[in-house]
Amino acid sequence: MSQPQRRDEIDLFVDDLLANPDRAEELKGKLRQTFGETATDRTTPEKRRAQLRHSEATRFAARAELRHADGRQPSGLDLVVFPHAAPPLRPRKDHRDRRRVAACGQGAWGTSDALDGIAAGQHRLERLAQRVRRAPGDEHEDVGPALRLQLRSEPLDVGGVEHAVLHLLYARFWHKVLYDLEIVSTDEPYTRLFNQGMILAFAYENEAGAKIPADQIEERDGRFYNGENGTEVRQIVAKMSKSLKNVVNPEDVTMRYGADSLRLYEMFMGPLESMKPWSTRGVEGITRFLDRVWRLMVGDEGSLSQAVTDAEPAPEQLRLLQYTIKKVTDDIDALRFNTAIAQMMVFTNEMTKLEQRPRRLLEPFVLLLLPFAPHLSEELWERLGQQPRAGQQPWPQFDPALVVSDRLTIPIQVNGKLRGKLEVDAGASREQLEPLAKKEVAEWLQGKEPKKVIYVEKKLINFVV
Questions:
Q1: Arithmetic mean of pLDDT over the chain
Q2: How far is Cα 75 from Cα 78, in angstroms, rounded to an integer?
Q3: Which is it for strands 452-456 and 417-425: parallel, antiparallel or unpaired?
């Protein structure tokens, strides 16, 4: 039997099986007779369903499937049966007859699997399908009003520029189809789109502008040279490319520095929407930061540090924690991950100075760090003796009263140029500020009386001379 004939027989078998699920055993027997005794079930449908739930590429395409175990020979077919989960046209007899008649060559026929090619990997559609299957009663009954309320638009879709013409295009197409069918209540799948910037890498070019693969480059005294001919080259920033040999393998970074360091560095590189060059030295800096966080709570022997106490924190320490909670919370909501990490670094530096570190400060900080460095955070949470896991804890909340500082830092300008800063009580008046500010910038005033004083309450004071 030729390969096209085998494919045709297999396709017809699947059609019959889906149209007559009650004859599954009889049809399996026919398959064995056609392709041999090896064409039998190799796994139970329940086990195969569990496997499919872990397969990103075939989540939504859970359907009747005939798979070649060795990829070539029809013997050893892996038969898996999912009744009622086939492409929509396959069970229709009129469609089967029509595609046979419309054959466009020897052994050629139409396909009913176009849906899978478009929708594979479409996570949102897969999630909707999962929820539909969880409907009460028969798993294939019409979607009721109670379920329809759950299928609302997501607030945010994050992806690169290519994402807009791939996944996002399909997501909008399928969502609008579901909207027309009155399965979802909104006409758009997402209410906000955010395109993250691309991570670039260093590349090298010679005087003529020709790119030199990175594996040929030698660095000497801060300069870069072509290792093959010794000529000096320029270091530039470019897209990662196999031809330039400047691709950074995440697995290599993870093996050397750990998954938390890689994850944290990617978020710390800069604004999420900006293109950023990769720097291995930056990963090393992030690793040192995580080491400092570890030493805050863990001693040299791996047990909880004796510096961790149950004492009450000082008011200024508690105020720093509350500000850190607010800052990290607000920055995560605004996708400003780099500034959130910067604030956690400030908090870590302040805690490092303390000989006694109250648990009341450390435990909320571990929960703040969790989305950025989950493995380290869970380890620290366990060292602190807390249960259950950190990932099951509620997000820390800040006290608005403690976030408001009782001190202000007022920039002082002379003729529009910053010449000093003044730290005063939050309730200080303009009359109190002006003499102090003049004294702070007396060097720049040179004894002259300002012609004009511009004062922005609690923000700025500018002397015009």
A1: 75
A2: 9
A3: unpaired
Q: Residue 144 sits in which domain range?
A: 122-195
Question: How many structural domains are present in the chain?
Answer: 4
Is residue 37, in this structure, part of any structural domain at all?
yes
Mean pLDDT over 268-272 rounds to 93
Strand ranges inside 112-254, DSSP E? 157-159, 193-195, 199-205, 211-212, 217-220, 223-226, 232-238
CA neighbours closer than 13 Å in the CB half-sphere of residue 103: 11
User: What single-letter amino acid sits at 334?
Assistant: A
Residue 313 lies in a domain: yes
DSSP bridge pairs for 418: 413
Check whether residue 99 and residue 84 sit in a common domain: yes
Cβ proximity of 281 and 365 under 8 Å: no
Contacts of 402 (CB under 8 A, 6+ apart): 318, 319, 322, 323
Domain end: 65, 85, 112, which one?
112
Listed residues 374, 402, 430: the one ending a domain: 402
Q: Report the DSSP pairing between strands 211-212 and 199-205.
A: antiparallel
Cβ-based neighbour number of residue 274 at 10 Å: 11
Are 48 and 64 a contacting pair, CB within 8 Å?
Answer: no
pLDDT: which is higher, 141 or 419: 419
Q: Would 14 be classed as within a structural domain?
A: yes
Q: Would you say residue 153 lies in a domain? A: yes
For the question of whether the overall pTM of this predicted structure is more than 0.85, the answer is no
The CA distance from 339 to 332, in Å, is: 9
Residue carrying structure tokens 């395409």: 61
269 three-state secondary structure? coil
Q: Looking at this protein, which amino acid is placed at residue 101?
A: V
